[in-house]
């Protein structure tokens, strides 16, 4: 099957330098992020964690389903309400310090009704 040169636009393969294969077809990396669930459908788990943190206690919120931007927004909200630092990546939010109860209350007020503490 002969390919139309116009179907193989050079802008779509900017990082490909050269291919000797005449049948080469560059495949795009179109990974779609998972859509963010409504707060009432999120099944978040809140726990205290000390592992690999030099003995420091952090509050760990796991189970978030959604885009990285929405996760960072949730992390920013929780960190600002607790008045501490932390991070939000890889589907979990880390809030520095022991804020388990406060985080649970904040999440429930924001509509995350399926949030549960983990012992």
TrEMBL record:
Keywords: Initiation factor, Protein biosynthesis, Translation regulation
Protein's name in the database: Translation initiation factor SUI1
Entry-linked Pfam families: SUI1
SUPFAM superfamilies: eIF1-like
Family of the protein in this entry: Belongs to the SUI1 family.
Record bears the keyword Magnesium: no
ATP-binding listed as a keyword: no
GO MF term (any one): translation initiation factor activity
Domain SUI1: 51-111
């Amino acid at each position: 099957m002969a390919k139309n040169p116009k179907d193989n636009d050079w802008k779509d393969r900017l990082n490909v330098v050269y291919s000797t294969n005449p049948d080469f077809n560059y495949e795009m990396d179109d990974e779609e992020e998972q859509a963010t669930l409504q707060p009432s459908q999120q099944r978040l788990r809140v726990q205290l964690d000390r592992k690999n943190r030099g003995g420091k206690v952090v509050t760990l919120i796991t189970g978030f389903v959604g885009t990285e931007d929405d996760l960072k927004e949730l992390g920013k909200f929780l960190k600002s309400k607790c008045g501490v630092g932390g991070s939000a990546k890889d589907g979990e939010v880390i809030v520095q310090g022991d804020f388990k109860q406060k985080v649970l209350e904040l999440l429930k007020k924001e509509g995350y009704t399926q949030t549960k503490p983990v012992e």
